[in-house]
Specification:
The complex is a heterodimer of chains A (413) and B (106).
Chain A lengths: L7 E4 L3 H12 L6 E4 L15 H4 L4 H4 L4 H6 L2 E4 L4 E5 L4 E4 L4 E3 L2 E4 L3 E3 L12 E3 L3 H10 L5 E5 L3 H12 L3 E5 L12 H13 L3 E3 L4 E6 L3 E6 L4 E3 L2 E4 L3 E3 L2 H5 L8 E2 L11 E3 L4 E2 L14 H15 L11 E6 L2 E7 L8 E4 L5 E6 L5 E9 L4 H13 L5 H5 L5 H6 L1
Parallel strand pairs in A: 1-2, 1-7, 2-3, 7-19, 9-16, 10-11, 10-16, 11-12, 18-20
Antiparallel strand pairs in A: 4-5, 5-6, 8-17, 13-14, 14-15, 21-22, 22-25, 23-24, 24-25
Helix pairs in contact in A: 1-9
Chain B lengths: L2 E8 L7 E7 L2 E7 L5 E5 L13 E3 L2 E3 L6 E3 L4 E2 L10 E2 L1 E4 L2 E7 L1
Antiparallel strand pairs in B: 1-11, 2-3, 3-4, 4-9, 5-6, 6-7, 7-8, 10-11
Classes of the chains: A alpha/beta (413), B mainly beta (106).
């Protein structure tokens, strides 16, 4: 079997897959390059789907990694005709929807995920919406009219950002969260608290610790019945309860799969010549560390880029510091490194009423930080924290807590 | 092409190794003071997704976008790698009697 001249194939034409394809070309790979996706659009970034695109302040072009013309110029074949049916790692080949066989030299799995469904929310109702793709965002946007009654299920980032956008468009919004606090699996209590206060102040009826009994209606959802007996009438129901990684192709092919497609430190899967990147990729940041997935813009960008380098044989370890942001009305939160829902080690106030929370290890080295501020104002401190994490020098808690000591100063000490 | 010189601020309004947003007419700019107190100016919005760069971090001669970590050399406007690929426009500045002036095309 000759795989030397076989094409590089990327399954998944989202952010990670798209970034990988562009990087392969910018790094000088001139062989055949096939990008297989299930959406009609050229690769785009997903964060605007719950913000600018939903608001109508940006469009597909505004979030594209590159348009189809550019894909053509770069000779990247973008196939959207149907799903890949199966993967045969030993034969280095794929079975396509039309029954044909495609041999690959090396393969990148960037299959992302799909919006998780809830068992007691019927699938067929026309006004029950999920938010994962551009087309889903447009459908939702068409329903967000002043005065429409929106029920959002899920107090994580997607649910909260949809709630914020819907409020700014004049909808009445009720948000249902099963847990005791907002984004409680990811964020420390203080950030959950400011999110709750802000969303309530902006008129979102946030209900914590609630469970859905049933969705009432026929072809359309008319109301949400809660377990405690309350009934919430709705014109639109948005379910934002996380994503389910698309691991089926890899699992059926016998690849090592945990919560995602498991990769080694160079993003290579358990099968030769197959790599994974983006939301679907389960990786360790450090040898011996815990396996994790990162469903973030930054991870898609960095792993897509990194996997491309390693597809070309660079053999580089992936150790990019994770991070994400989330925007709510005119406030924003940002994180870097490893943060958790636990209490932070230290905090500092910022000038605009925001704050930074620090997580230190036993040796007083910074593991992670998260912060809250007006607009993008928290970005500087978070970027400095990223550099402090990378340096790994021990820090003093009193200095971290003293807003008069700039983080830049600590970095240069 | 001729320039119009606009009074931006007192030079000490910008810290060393820092950036400030400056709006004039329909345009927004980012003005920089380097660690050795040289001044520079670029377009105010990142070429990637139009985010205000003035919320970003200045380290050495690099401005990093507050959202997507796109980096530019603010002296030349050069984009330093993905996700940014389009350079920033730069504008001339001059200092007179302790005030910073920005040269914008007329």
């Amino acid at each position: 079997m000759n795989t030397v001249n076989a094409p590089l194939v990327i399954i998944g034409a989202g952010h990670a897959g798209g970034r990988a394809a562009l990087t392969l070309r910018s790094e000088g790979y001139s062989g055949r390059l096939i990008l297989i996706g299930d959406e009609a659009h050229a690769p785009y970034e997903r964060p605007p789907l719950s913000k600018g695109l939903l608001q109508g302040t940006t469009d597909l072009a505004g979030c594209s990694l590159c348009d189809s013309t550019r894909l053509g110029e770069l000779d990247i074949e973008h196939w959207t005709a149907g799903p890949v049916l199966s993967l045969a790692p030993a034969q280095h080949g794929l079975q396509l929807a039309d029954g044909s066989w495609l041999a690959y030299g090396r393969l990148l799995l960037a299959t992302g995920g799909r919006a998780r469904r809830l068992p007691n929310v019927p699938e067929h109702m026309a006004n029950v919406l999920y938010l994962r793709t551009h087309d889903e965002a447009l459908t939702l946007r068409n329903g967000l009219r002043p005065g429409s009654r929106l029920v959002v299920v899920g107090g994580g980032f997607i649910g909260l950002e949809v709630a914020a956008t819907a409020r700014s468009l004049g909808c009445s919004v009720t948000l249902l969260e099963a847990g005791p606090r907002l984004a409680g699996r990811v964020l420390p209590e203080r950030l959950s608290g400011v999110l709750l206060d802000l969303h309530r102040a902006r008129g979102v009826d946030v209900r914590l610790n609630v469970a859905i009994e049933a969705v009432l209606g026929g072809e359309r959802a008319e109301a949400v019945q809660l377990v405690d007996g309350q009934c919430l009438p709705c014109d639109l129901l948005v379910v934002g309860v996380g994503m389910q990684p698309n691991v089926e192709l890899a699992r059926t092919a016998g690849l090592d799969v945990g919560q995602g497609i498991r990769v080694d430190g160079q993003l290579q899967s358990s099968a030769a010549d197959i790599f994974a990147a983006g939301d679907v990729c389960e990786f360790r940041l450090h040898p011996g560390g815990e396996f994790q997935r990162q469903e973030t813009w930054r991870n898609a960008e960095h792993q897509g880029h990194h996997a491309a380098l390693n597809l070309l044989g660079a053999g580089l370890p992936f150790n990019s510091i994770p991070g994400f942001w989330s925007d709510h009305y005119d406030w924003g939160l940002q994180t870097t490194g490893q943060i958790s829902s636990a209490e932070p080690s230290a905090s500092r106030a910022t000038a605009d009423g925001g704050f930074v929370l620090f997580y230190l290890d036993a040796g007083q080295r910074l593991l992670g930080a998260c912060g809250w501020g007006m607009g993008n104002s928290i970005a500087r401190d978070i970027k400095l924290c990223e550099r402090l994490i990378a340096c790994g020098t021990p820090l003093q808690v009193p200095a971290l807590m003293d807003a008069g000591v700039s983080l830049k100063q600590l970095l240069r000490n | 092409m001729s320039e119009q010189w606009i009074d931006v601020c007192c030079v000490d309004d910008i810290d060393e190794e820092d950036v400030m947003r400056f709006d004039h007419g329909q345009h927004t700019y980012a003005v920089y003071r380097s660690a050795d107190s040289e001044f520079f100016a670029t377009a105010g919005l990142c070429t990637h997704e139009s985010i205000h760069l003035a919320d970003g971090l200045v380290m050495d001669h690099v401005i990093e976008c507050p959202k997507h970590n796109g980096r530019f050399d603010y002296r030349s406007g050069k984009a330093l790698g993905a996700p940014v690929c389009v350079n920033l426009k730069t504008y001339p500045v001059r200092v007179e009697a302790g005030r910073l002036y920005l040269g914008v095309p007329t």
